[in-house]
Amino acid sequence: MLFIENLHVAYGKVQALWGVTLEVLEGEIVALVGANGAGKTTLLRTASGVLRRHSGSITFRGKRLEEASSQEIVRSGLVHIPEGRKLFPEMTVLENLLMGGYTASKSDRPQRLDRVFAVFPVLKERQTQLAGTLSGGEQQMVAIGRGLMAGPKLLMLDEPSLGLAPLLVEEVFQVITEINRSGVTVLLVEQNTQHALSLAHKGFVMESGKIVLSGSGSELLANINVRKAYLGL
């Protein structure tokens, strides 16, 4: 579904990604794990068109995306939920959600909104509340809901559990599992390695802008190097 091959990305003269190759197959949850600064966010930002590659290829559902605009990429079904939620705090929950549906036809938006409210019933209750007044967990729900409003075929989530209390972390990962079961493929960037690899069909480990390990989620959880480096075991 998503194939990234030999991807090189730089910030000016500073190289961030070095020949990254990975694939996400339809229906999978794929986890991308690694330390801060490993290049995980850079990879998502490049796939979503925010950054431009130096070389390499990005193919989504059979179409090359390297020169596509971010709007074209969203319309193709590849949707990125960034780290830190990036909501519009002075806009209501409903207004934030509708911003995510800007590529959808007016006739499709009510159905998509109903789907978001089915996943996050609390957002229906809070739809007139300013997004900036919500709790961290509720704001993350809005961010995920805004992504769902775009009608994703593949949803890329960057650190969805960041800053959340343990109980809310469990809830977020359960929602991700439910979204995947509904037919949406997921590429998950997450520093919570245990949670991410536990639910992933497949995982990749990044270090210093390179993929250094890959395998099933269970294989990586059992890998002694992963356990020492990321699980403290």
3D architecture notes:
The protein has helices spanning 40-47, 70-76, 93-100, 109-119, 121-125, 136-149, 166-181, 193-199, 217-222, 224-230, and strands spanning 2-11, 14-24, 29-33, 55-60, 63-64, 78-81, 154-158, 185-189, 202-207, 210-216. Helices cover 38% and strands 26% of the residues. The protein has ten helices and ten strands. The mean pLDDT is 94. With 233 residues, it is an alpha/beta fold. The chain is globular.
Helical residue percent band: 25-40%
* CATH H-level homologous superfamily name of the largest domain: P-loop containing nucleotide triphosphate hydrolases
Quickly give the structural class.
alpha/beta
SS elements, strand count:
10
Order of helices and strands: EEEHEEHEHHHHEHEHEEHH
Judging from the principal axes of the Cα atoms, what is the shape? globular
Return Rg in Å: 17 Å
Q: What keyword list fits this structure?
A:
single chain; 233 residues; alpha/beta; Rossmann fold; 2 domains; 6-stranded mixed beta sheet; 4-stranded antiparallel beta sheet; 38% helix
Draw up the topology in text.
Layout: E1 2-11, E2 14-24, E3 29-33, H1 40-47, E4 55-60, E5 63-64, H2 70-76, E6 78-81, H3 93-100, H4 109-119, H5 121-125, H6 136-149, E7 154-158, H7 166-181, E8 185-189, H8 193-199, E9 202-207, E10 210-216, H9 217-222, H10 224-230
Parallel strand pairs: 3-8, 3-9, 6-7, 7-8
Antiparallel strand pairs: 1-2, 1-4, 4-5, 9-10
Helix pairs in contact: 3-6, 4-6
